[in-house]
Amino acid sequence: MNSLEDYILNHIDKESELLARLYREAHVRLLNPRMLSGHLQGRILKMLARMCRPKKILEIGTHTGYATLCLAEALPESGEIHTIEKNDEMEDFIMQQFNQSSFKKNIYLYIGDALEIIPQINGMFDMVFIDADKRLYNEYYDLIFDKVNANGIILADNTLWNRKILGKPHPNDNQTIGILAFNEKVKQDKRVEKVILPIRDGLTIIHRL
């Protein structure tokens, strides 16, 4: 073993064969494979969902579908996960993964702008996972907040943003500026409890009171 992460991965639940294959294919076929959640974060997402027992999940930013499949593992048989991906070039890759999954009947994929699609999805959510355009985290948060049930959970990925949040961002670095604004907004929001986990690139857990 070469690192602490190797040790951790050797002592937690394994990812499924489908997820392991997805991970390999992403690194062969895609330009930015490191954006997918991966083994450790995937098991954390599943564990959080298992503990929260959501019946309906919203995911903003599907990318490869890795995190989607991890969250779907924790759904009840009648549960739903609605996932939105803006990049239409990812659709074929995503659907290839979903169609191989035993959870495909629980997954609803939308291709397009999340800010336009979210208002069209009926009903309330027990869990929301935000992992899309960092410049728009505040807009996503405002849009989904009233669609989250009381005691529901909002997860936001990349909230430590490769440690760029520790310095003054370049005026043109709108993604870092977006993450900083989101972190401050959540800090000041008295409607929620919140904590940032320093795993990978930062995962914020937000509990709606």
Automatic annotation (TrEMBL):
- Keywords per UniProt: Methyltransferase, S-adenosyl-L-methionine, Transferase
Q: Which Pfam families match?
A: Methyltransf_3 (PF01596)
| GO MF, one example | S-adenosylmethionine-dependent methyltransferase activity
GO biological process: one example: methylation
Q: What is this protein called?
A: O-methyltransferase family protein
Organism field: Azobacteroides pseudotrichonymphae genomovar. CFP2
